[in-house]
Design a protein that fits this description.
The chain is built from 5 helices and 3 strands, in the order βββααααα. It is mostly helical.
Length: about 170
């Protein structure tokens, strides 16, 4: 879903887990356009980017991020997931499966974005997702990372990809 405000601010939400907000440069100035948040204050002054709603500045990014936490009961599990889900405890095969599934991002379907946006971080995110997912029971483990790469390419570089199919992250 894409929402565009009368002032040309865009909000894209995939209906599940990702949101992208893009605002024009006119939001940098003016009394009605003060932006604050995890992404900074949008005033080209990096020295005040780690400020909370009260204007308190933080040196530590984790402490700063916690000031924006809406649900204080939402705490990330400090233990990372295991190396890779494997239905038969064959971790090498599970890693190979994650590599196989996520290598799609390196191929021709996503190549129009490669000159603008490096795919490696998104492939790593994809592999992490596949490794944490029961990919034998679900075929959508790659979808979030591929969708994010596609959206970032569209929003930042105006390159639209047609990558979903009946075989990959169904349309």
């Amino acid at each position: 879903m894409i929402v565009k405000s009368s002032e040309d601010a865009l909000v894209y939400f995939d209906g599940k887990s990702d949101i992208i907000i893009k605002v024009p440069d006119t939001f940098k100035t003016g009394p009605d356009h003060e932006l604050l948040g995890l992404c900074g204050s949008y005033d080209d002054d990096k020295s005040n980017d780690f400020a909370d709603l009260t204007g308190t500045l933080y040196n530590d990014i984790n402490t700063f991020a916690k000031t924006w936490q809406a649900d204080l009961t939402c705490v990330r599990d400090p233990k990372p997931p295991g190396p890779c889900f494997s239905p038969d405890n064959n971790l090498a095969a599970a890693y190979d499966e994650a590599e196989r599934r996520c290598s799609l991002i390196e191929g021709p379907t996503f190549s129009p974005c490669h000159k603008f946006l490096p795919f490696k971080p998104y492939k790593e995110m994809c592999m992490s997702d596949v490794c944490a997912c029961n990919y034998t029971a679900r075929d959508d483990c790659v979808c979030d990372a591929l969708a994010l790469y596609s959206r970032m390419c569209a929003v930042k570089y105006n390159v639209t990809l047609s990558w979903r199919s009946s075989f990959v992250c169904r349309k």
